[in-house]
Specification:
411 residues, alpha/beta, Rossmann fold, seven-stranded mixed sheet, six-stranded parallel sheet, 13 helices
Length: 411
C-alpha cells in the first residue's frame, strides 16, 4: 500500500504508507481506489489542517485493514496547497485530472473551498468539506459535513445572551478578513438585530490571516465593554492567529466571567499550543468535543492514538466531520457498487453514521448533515467541559433567513 504525494512529501504520510496492511491478493490485482487529500500542510492554516490529512490517512488504513471497498484497496494521494488559495485550485485540478482520484477530502477555509469549487464542478469531482462555514452555498459536487450557521454560530450567540451564558447585550465580532467571518457576522448581525440588539451595541473588526499584534484590538474590546452592559466576544478568527489573540486576552486580564468569548474555529488542536490556564471558562461552539462520552468516541480516540502513536494527541470537530464523511462515502460506494461520482452522489442521500458525538447523523439532499450543537468551556488541560448541548441533531439551514436575498429562495 503506498501513499502518493504531489509536491511536498509528508514524513508521517510516507511512514503510514509503509505501515498499511496488505489486502488479499484478489483485491491487490484490481486498480486501487484513489482518495485525494487536499489540506494545507504548511503556512498559516497548517496548525489546523495537518490533523485532517492524518485523519484521512487513518481512515484509509482502517478501511484497507477491513478489506478495502468492493474488493479494492484504497490509496491516498496527498497534496499540499500551502495555505495559498489559488494553489488550492491548481492542486485540485492535479488530483482530478492527473491523479484521477475517486473522491477528495479537503479544505478548511471558505476561500479555499470557493477556490476549488469551479474545478470540482467542471470535472465532476466529489469533495467532502469537513469544517463549519457560513452557508449560502449548495453544490452537487460537495458534501458539507461541518456546521451551517444555525448549527453553530446562532446557537452560540443565543447561549451568550441567555442567563446561563451571562446575559450578554453587547457583542464584539472579531474575525479573520475573508468570506466565512464576514458572511457569518452578517448573519449574526441580522439575528442580533431581530433580538433587539442594535448596531451601536455590536463591534465588528477584521484582521489578516496570520495576524499577530492584538494589543490594540483587545484594548478596544475592553473599552467597548466598559459601558456597564454585559459584553461578549464572538470569534471567527482562523488559523495560527488564534495563538497571539488568546495570549493577549490573558495579558490584558480578560477573564471569562468579565468578558466571555466564544470561538467557532478553535478546538483542541489549536489549544494544544497555548497556555490555557488564563483562558479557563472561555467558550467554543462545535458539534463534537473530544470530551464527549460515547462508545463511538472511545473507539475514535483510541484508534487515533494507535494510528498517530501518541496518546497525548487530541481529536477535534473537523476530524470527526472527516471521519463521518469518509464512512458515509464508503457506505455509498458499497451501496452503489461503483466509485463513479453520479451514482455515489445519489447513494449518499440518507446515509447514516453513529458518530463520535454520540448521535446518529444523516446526510440530507441539501448535501448537509443533521448535527447536534455543543458549547464547551476551556479547561486548564486544553480540553472542553460541555456546558450546553441540543437534545439531538438539527437539520442544516444552509440558506440563512437573516440574509435578505434568501427570502424567495426555495429550501
Amino acid at each position: 500500500m503506498k501513499t502518493l504525494h504531489f509536491g511536498r512529501r509528508s514524513a508521517l504520510a510516507a511512514g503510514t504508507a509503509l505501515a498499511l496492511p496488505a489486502v488479499h491478493s484478489a483485491s491487490a490485482q484490481a486498480a486501487p481506489i484513489k482518495v485525494g487529500v487536499l489540506h494545507s500542510l504548511t503556512g498559516t492554516m497548517a496548525i489546523s489542517e495537518t490533523a485532517l490529512r492524518d485523519t484521512v490517512l487513518m481512515m484509509v488504513e482502517q478501511q484497507n485493514a477491513a478489506g478495502g471497498i468492493l474488493g479494492r484497496r484504497l490509496e491516498a494521494v496527498v497534496v499540499d496547497p500551502a495555505s495559498n488559495w489559488p494553489l488550492f485550485a491548481e492542486k485540485a485540478r492535479e488530483l482530478l485530472a492527473v491523479a484521477k482520484v475517486d473522491v477528495t477530502f479537503g479544505c478548511w477555509t471558505s476561500v479555499s473551498r470557493k477556490s476549488v469549487l469551479p474545478v470540482f464542478e467542471e470535472l465532476n469531482g466529489l469533495l467532502f468539506y469537513p469544517v463549519q462555514y457560513e452557508g449560502e452555498e449548495q453544490s452537487r459536487n460537495v458534501f458539507y459535513t461541518g456546521a451551517a450557521p444555525n448549527q453553530q454560530a446562532i446557537p452560540a450567540v443565543e447561549y451568550l445572551m441567555s442567563a446561563d451564558g451571562g446575559g450578554a447585550r453587547r457583542i464584539a465580532l472579531l474575525g479573520t478578513d475573508y468570506v466565512y467571518p464576514r458572511t457569518t457576522n452578517r448573519i449574526l448581525r441580522g439575528f442580533l438585530n431581530s433580538k433587539g440588539i442594535n448596531d451601536a451595541n455590536i463591534m465588528e473588526e477584521y484582521t489578516p490571516f496570520g495576524h499577530s499584534d492584538w494589543q490594540g484590538i483587545v484594548a478596544r474590546v475592553k473599552a467597548f465593554a466598559a459601558q456597564g452592559v454585559k459584553t461578549a466576544i464572538v470569534s471567527t478568527i482562523n488559523g495560527d492567529a488564534n495563538v497571539p489573540f488568546y495570549r493577549e486576552l490573558g495579558n490584558q486580564g480578560i477573564k471569562a466571567e468579565d468578558i466571555p468569548s466564544v470561538a467557532f474555529s478553535v478546538g483542541e488542536e489549536e489549544l494544544a499550543g497555548i497556555d490555557t490556564r488564563p483562558l479557563v471558562g472561555h467558550l467554543a461552539a462545535w458539534n463534537y468535543f473530544m470530551s464527549v462520552r460515547s462508545p463511538a468516541n472511545t473507539q475514535f480516540v483510541s484508534g487515533w492514538h494507535r494510528f498517530i502513536g501518541n496518546t497525548r494527541r487530541v481529536t477535534n470537530d473537523p476530524m470527526e466531520a472527516t471521519l463521518v464523511g469518509f464512512k458515509m462515502w464508503a457506505q455509498a460506494v458499497t451501496a452503489a457498487r461503483t466509485t463513479a461520482v453520479d451514482p455515489v452522489r445519489e447513494a449518499m442521500y440518507g446515509q447514516k453514521v453513529a458518530a463520535p458525538c454520540g448521535y446518529e447523523l444523516e446526510m440530507h439532499r441539501n448535501h448537509h448533515l443533521s448535527k447536534p450543537v455543543m458549547i464547551g468551556e476551556v479547561q486548564a488541560d486544553g480540553q472542553f467541559n460541555i456546558v450546553w448541548r441540543t437534545q439531538g441533531p438539527i437539520v442544516a439551514e444552509n440558506w440563512s433567513p437573516f440574509i435578505p436575498e434568501n427570502a424567495n429562495r426555495r429550501r
